[in-house]
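Troubleshooting log. The previous structure file for this entry was overwritten by mistake, so regenerating from the original sequence record. Sequence copied from the archived sheet and checked twice against the printout by T.R.
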Amino acid sequence: MRRLSMILIALGALGDGGGARAQAAYYDPDAVVTVQGRVIAVQSGSAGPGAEPDLYLQVQTDRFVIDVLLGPAMWVARHGHGFGVGDRVTVTGAQTSVAGRPGIIAAELRGRGGRRTTFRDRRGAPRWGDEHGRHEHERQ
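Regenerated output below.
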């Protein structure tokens, strides 16, 4: 739990309490990477009092464990395709560092059955600010 608290503090401005503009501001489109691995933890937590909890994954790749910020837990529950510990996933998003460890602010996650959930557009603007929800569930 202490590690999750450190992640939340380091990414505090990225949580829903920071708003869509703050999320886009911290998302660096020039730092986009794609990693594949297995989910080893699914956690939620809030960056501070009054902030909506965000959902995070820890993904074990072939070389390292990476922390992945998905977005507000309630939005992910409504629009995510479902994933759990042990699932193989492919995550694309902006690479960042949290307490000296690699992290990703997720733009897209592919999981079970090839299903894709898009969390942010190419500029990093969160989908939970998109009233039309055009890209929430796509299958390829």
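Residues 25 and 124 are 8 Å apart (CA to CA). Archived copy saved in two places this time.
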